[in-house]
Amino acid sequence: MKKDLKVNINGEYYEVSIEPNTTLIGLLRDELGLKGTKENCGVGRCGACTVLLEGKMVYACLILAMQVEGKKIQTIEGLGGENQLHPLQQSFIDHGAFQCGFCTPGMLMTAKGLLDENPNPSGEEVRKGISGNLCRCTGYVRIIEAILDVADKMRR
Question: What value does the mean pLDDT of the chain take?
């Protein structure tokens, strides 16, 4: 039996009727058509589905959609503006911090959450902060450089 859900995603309010076992990733991708958040492992080990829930990083594959009733969620679609990239997005481009791009949305949302919590991280803190996000292409060096570059620019 479907249940009604009200949720704020990227500043927009949605009312949907979903099955109680629908995950947040299922809500985003299947119900709302927000395909930027990627689904990969389904068990919280890869970080591809990272979104911000009330400003905190979470894996959308591990949370039931009903658990986010009335809460604010930010996905990759809400990171940059329609005509302007978020500084993290631009930095990832500038540093060549992505290759295939599959992990990039989750990595960007993790980086945003990390910098929101700690605007002046060390390289080690960035490495630890993104350790829950797997990337099979880049080797992480350029990702770390891109995040540190944004942190440096924010301090100026």
Answer: 96
- Give CA–CA dist 66/20, Å, rounded: 7
**Which tens digits make up the pLDDT trace of 43-95?**
999 999 999 999 999 999 999 999 999 999 999 999 998 889 999 999 999 99
3-class secondary-structure state, position 53: strand
- The answer to whether the beta carbons of residues 108 and 50 sit under 8 Å apart is no
Question: Which residue carries 């481009």 as its tokens?
Answer: 93
For the chain, how many residues are written?
A: 156
Fold match between 3-77 and 87-155?
Answer: no
Please state, in angstroms and rounded to a whole number, the distance separating the CA atoms of residues 93 and 156. 21
Structurally, what CATH architecture does the domain formed by 3-77 represent?
A: Roll (3.10)
Superfamily for 87-155? Answer: [2Fe-2S]-binding domain (1.10.150.120)
